[in-house]
UniProtKB/TrEMBL annotation:
Domain named C2HC/C3H-type: residues: 17-46
Entry's Gene Ontology molecular function annotations: zinc ion binding
One Pfam family linked to the record: zf-C2HC_2
Organism name: Panthera leo
Protein name: C2HC/C3H-type domain-containing protein
Keywords, comma-separated and alphabetical: Metal-binding, Repeat, Zinc, Zinc-finger
InterPro entries linked: ZC2HC1A/B-like, Znf_C2HC_C3H
Transmembrane segments: none
Domain of life of the native organism: Eukaryota
Length: 87
C-alpha cells in the first residue's frame, strides 16, 4: 500500500463571478472584465492590423447580441467564407 494521495494536483478552478475574456481567453472578475474587454479588443485590432492581409482574422465577436455593430458587405462575406458550415 503506497500513499499516492499525498499531494493532490493543483487544478485551477473556475470561480463564480469570474468571466472569461472572449478575446484573449483569460479570466477576470466581473468588474475587471468590463474594463479589460474594450482595451483587449483595441489591442487585438492593432495587432491584427499589423499582420499581413492573408493572416488577418475576423474580429472575435462577443457572445451576446451587439447593438450598433456595423458590418460591411465585404466583412459579412469574409466571415461567411471563414466560418459557417451549415449542418
Ligand atoms: Zn482579453
Amino acid at each position: 500500500m503506497s500513499e499516492s494521495l499525498h499531494s493532490p494536483p493543483v487544478i485551477p478552478s473556475r470561480r463564480p463571478g469570474f468571466r472569461v475574456c472572449y478575446i484573449c481567453g483569460r479570466e477576470f472578475g466581473s468588474q475587471s472584465i468590463a474594463i479589460h474587454e474594450p482595451q483587449c479588443l483595441e489591442k487585438w485590432r492593432i495587432e491584427n492590423s499589423k499582420l499581413p492581409k492573408h493572416l488577418r482574422r475576423p474580429e472575435p465577436s462577443k457572445p451576446q447580441p451587439l447593438r450598433g455593430l456595423e458590418l460591411t458587405d465585404r466583412e459579412i462575406m469574409t466571415r461567411a467564407e471563414v466560418g459557417c458550415s451549415t449542418d
